[in-house]
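Following the same procedure, the fold was encoded as tokens, giving this record:
***
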Amino acid sequence: MNNDLKEIIYESAIRTFEMMCYMFPLDEDEIAGDGHDMDESCMTALVTFDGASDGGMVIRSNADLVDAIAVNMLGSDDATTDQKQGALCEIANIVCGNIIPHFSDGEKISYIRPPGIVGAAEDPHARFHGMEKVGPVHVHLDEGHADIVLFYLKK
């Protein structure tokens, strides 16, 4: 099931970046180096959910991608840090919202909680101890890249 979920996460992320930010995935041969220059300038958003399953999704993006997300969503080249954080949270919210219906049996639904930014000193994975982990799923776009990890406990 994890491979199926990885594919669902990847496809949801790509669709979201295409529709919301006009960004498109790189082909495998277009990815320079290891493509994972994640450092302290990265930004991490977290969305939690409960109901049919409990869990959360973490999306970590490099600074170039966060900047491009804000520019493309807001139509402004001078986005503030708050606006960049809001734009990344919205992307995380949409991606997560497209993933969690796969946990529903048709009877129970899941509730998505408001997304938030994770501080640089925080480990967002720590709160999901004991849950199934899927990922990281690497999403490479011209503008940058993101890693997405999903945690869940199906009821």
